[in-house]
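Comment thread on ticket #2218

A.B. wrote:
> Attaching the input chain for the structure job we discussed in standup.
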Amino acid sequence: MIELVIRLLQPIVKIRREEWHKTILMFLCFSFAIATLYILKPVRSSLFLTIHGSENLRYAYVGEGIFLVFITSLYIKLSRWLKKKSTLFSVTIGFFICTIIAFWALFKAGYVEWLSYFFYVWVAAYSITIVTQCWALANDIFNPQEAKRLFGFIISGGSLGGILGGLITNRFAEKIGTANLLLLGAFLLGCCLFFVHAILKHERVDAADKAAKKENPSSHTIFIGEKSTWSLFFSSRYLLLIAAIVMIAKISSTIIDNQFNAVVENSILEKNARTAFFGGFMALLNGVSFLLQLVFSGYALRQFGVGISLLLLPIGLAFGATSTIFFPILQMAALTKIYDGSLNYSINQLGKEILYLPIPGWIRYRVKPLIDMLAYRVSKSLAGVLIILAAPLLGIPDEKLGVLVLFLVPLWILCVWGVRDEYMQSIRKLLSHSQGRDKTPGSSTKQVTNMLANLEGERSFEKLKDFFVHKSSITRKLSAAACLAFYSSACDMNRVKKLVEEMVRYEALDLKGVEIDHIFKEELHCATSVFDRYLAEIFKAKKEPDRNLMAVLREKEEEILLKVSECLQDSHEDIMAKRKAVLVLTALGTQGAVDILLNSIAAIQDRSLRFNLIRALNQIRAKGGRHQFNKWIIKKEIMNEVKSYQSIKTAIEEYKRKKEFARPEEDYLLATLKAIEQEGLERIFRLLALIYESDVIHVIYDRLIEIEVDKHLRANAVELLQNVVDPELYHLLCPILDDAQWEETPKKKLDEIIEELLESQDRWLTVCAIFTIIELNLNKFFPSLEDATHYRTSLVREAAEIAVMKIKSKADNHET
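C.D. wrote:
> Ran it. Output below, let me know if you need it in another format.
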């Protein structure tokens, strides 16, 4: 049954297979909670009006506010006493079920007259408490990326629940009696208790909360042990901004409602016609709200982010309020009311709930009731006071009260923009506090280089396996590739040493961390490349033998930049000379150096050398200065890197599918490919760090590459990325960061990828293609391996010779 429901919903709501359990249960929980409310509300209104009449409702309104203060305080204390969320939810729902049954029993016993007052205010407390608790649970089990897709569907369950509750009341009120409807409400609420336990059993919210406290115990002590709820609330700018948005939205909504009612009163004079209009209008309003909740809300949040989505309501109301000032007619007032009501209970509600997600659970359970219950109700009273005082003072008639909203909109927009920044900072803090869990070895590059330079027998390669989880992707790549070569060559140490030597030289690990003065003073006397000879000539031309190299470089900067550019563009120049050219540009660190590095990236296809260029740009930017980084070039290169990353990712998936049981710790080719894949991701984020705040980009990247991936932390990292980078880049990156979107992306066939890698100017990709051919025994590409043994680049040539040797060895064994 659930599978059928999901298939029907899939075109509208993108529910992924691993999410259907919690999503459907949360949808049902919210539906039944609201259905209960729409049984209780007609019962309370009917009982109250029958006994006391509408003239006494004002006293009930006052009682609502006073009783809500008590309920809010009690709920906050309860959340502090009951640390386990499952216990808190059970106690709260159980309390309401018992109270409903108690009211039923007392009403049946004849205690109706004064108890109906208390029941009226109690229903108001139930309404806001149960909704707050449902969203608190949703905040716990959904991450920001899931929330954007699924909260619209979940909140639409409330609309359906309201329909269900209304139909039950309409159908059974006369058959079983008003008081007996309470038992149906208690039954539906009991179903909610079942749904909540099913969710908590599957999601293990309490375990996650304990882990978060264990991981960051200091924050728990500070927030819980030392601060009261009020001091915690007033000391947080983020919480104050959320409260301000909630309150301004409610005040504006109340003003718009008052204006709408005044226009209806002036436009429709006959009582029955007015009643019919209100009935049809409320049906239309709920229909629009339902469609927005189900279809548009999630789309808007995914496309525009939380900040822009929260601006839709105030900006739209500004236009609507302005229109009603000049055209105080029924149609304009109705459109403004529909816009306000539908967005308030869809996009605005969902955006507000997403703002709570970066707040730690033990804080959220204390401040959320304060904002959503108390501040929300107080706002309605403030709106009333504002209308009473401002309207007569400014001479504003009721049908033009929308002008008051225009005074609130600028403050509203400022709060939204401020909360957007605070939202990003909250996610950033959450991600930063989660650092340090990666237990990967931190050996220096020099240690790895020394081990690769002194390989002796199989034991050396067994030690190299320890570096398969090293924090450096280059180290992992070299270690895995060395083991791959060793075991592919039937342990032929001479051949393997040649290949490893070329790998190390190609990556130029010996240059990392070495001072530029040392490199050129020690090596220029034996210069072999054109670029080396040029630098040697410049250096010798200076009479002072101990002249500082940096002084020489700056003095001859224009000429040197020209030669550096020629070196990087020359396809015949040695790779080591090009890396030295990059070091020269890094040392110069001028705008001219930045421009050459950026222009060279576009011309160089070798990913390893591109990595050097991008790192050089990062180093120059880190030193400070007023450098201009051409955003258009960088965005274009990010696109190129994404395409390359997609090819490697597809190759890995195809390889794993063919090998079936391939794992990086046991399969050396897979380990090499995974390291190259991470290099590609690192290049993408290093490019992003050139045009956006580098610290934020680094935090996001660190969370995305963690070995033990926490799906909620990863989702928060992706959410922060969406709020940092431009929309076109975010949508470009989404498929490679989101596994579900990646599965829907069209893929190339393995043969096409192998051909692409063999023809690539990236030597490492060619080497991986060579070993993939022999690992998967792709016979059609064997002639290409023979051709590769004559390749000009020794790195590819050595790899091809090992591959050919392995093919011949297999053929000999087969004949034997």
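A.B. wrote:
> Thanks. Noting for the ticket: Residues 230 and 488 are 67 Å apart (CA to CA).
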